[in-house]
Write a structure and sequence with these properties.
By secondary structure, the chain is an alpha+beta fold. The chain has one domain. The protein has seven helices and eleven strands. The strands form three sheets. Strands 1, 4, 5, 7, 8 and 11 form a six-stranded antiparallel beta sheet that branches. The protein has a three-stranded antiparallel beta sheet with strand order 6-10-9, with no helix packed on it. The longest helix is centred in the first third of the chain and has 12 residues. The chain is globular and about 45 Å long. It starts with 8 loop residues before the first helix and ends with a strand.
């Protein structure tokens, strides 16, 4: 997976971070039911071209599912200047096939490929990325949240702790089930966990075709090793295995060091 940064010496190193290792059976067919969107999608291409194509993407052909996720993303009215379209990526079953790798090892830790999601690349601070060597030394993690919190995080390049107020006025609160008084940011090496309804609530969305959908948002991040702790799931999964790759006992990261997490991609999933 190539991280979203401008051309530099570390960019060549970043290009080596393409998802690598073994495979597993997809958990949910609704993650990649792309065909059913074909007759429903009627996206105005002219208004979205600058978020789809770039001069270096002459071979990039966005699929129907990508366009549907793009339409939802545009409805959130985030500033287009935040997005590095060179690093958009679709993980639907058409664009990221079943035979493709299902997890990688980055920074010494596994992370699971976000099958069924679309990534919209985000610009980051290149100076910090080079100084910290994040593309070679930091792990990949996911942070599930809501669109209001995403707006604050990507505009200010800073994660939110409980008690913080989003741009729209929404106050971040400690999730039910977590220890009161613990002001921490929660991430995971698998989107199966960060994308759960508890962390990433479903949002109603009506496309320009008139079809009704649900959508979710998750941030893909680089996270500094040694600044977080690992614990078991806290969503009352019980005996249910959340992810076929990451065990339930190691599925949640938590940290009080908000600056140790850098979001570099906005992941969106649209489904019915």
């Amino acid at each position: 997976m190539r991280p979203p940064m401008k051309s530099s010496g570390s960019a060549s190193a970043a290009s080596r971070t393409h998802e690598r290792s073994s495979s597993f059976v997809r958990k949910r067919s609704d993650y990649s039911d792309v065909g059913k969107y074909r007759s429903n999608l009627n996206l105005a291409a002219r208004s979205t071209t600058d978020l789809v194509h770039s001069p270096s993407m002459t071979t990039f052909q966005p699929c129907y599912y990508f366009k549907l996720c793009l339409e939802f993303m545009l409805s959130l009215e985030y500033s287009k200047k935040l997005f590095n379209r060179k690093h958009n990526r679709c993980y639907c079953e058409k664009c990221y096939t079943a035979s493709s790798k299902n997890f990688y090892v980055e920074g010494g830790s596994k992370y699971v490929i976000p099958r069924g999601w679309v990534r919209f690349g985000l610009y980051i601070d290149d100076a910090q990325a080079q100084a910290e060597n994040i593309w070679n030394k930091w792990v990949v993690s996911y942070h599930g949240t809501n669109p209001q919190a995403v707006k604050s995080i990507i505009e200010h390049h800073q994660f939110l702790l409980p008690g913080d107020q989003c741009i729209g006025g929404h106050v971040i609160r400690i999730r039910e089930g977590h220890i009161p008084g613990k002001f921490q940011v929660y991430t995971s090496p698998t989107i199966a966990y960060s994308g759960d309804d508890i962390y990433s609530p479903s949002i109603s969305f009506r496309s320009t075709s008139g079809q009704s959908y649900k959508a979710k948002v998750v941030l893909q991040c680089r996270q500094q090793p040694g600044t977080y702790k690992i614990q078991a799931e806290t969503i009352d999964a019980g005996s249910r295995r959340i992810c076929p790759i990451i065990p339930n006992s190691e599925v949640e990261y938590f940290t009080e060091v908000r600056s140790s997490i850098i979001p570099y991609g906005l992941l969106i999933r649209v489904f019915q």
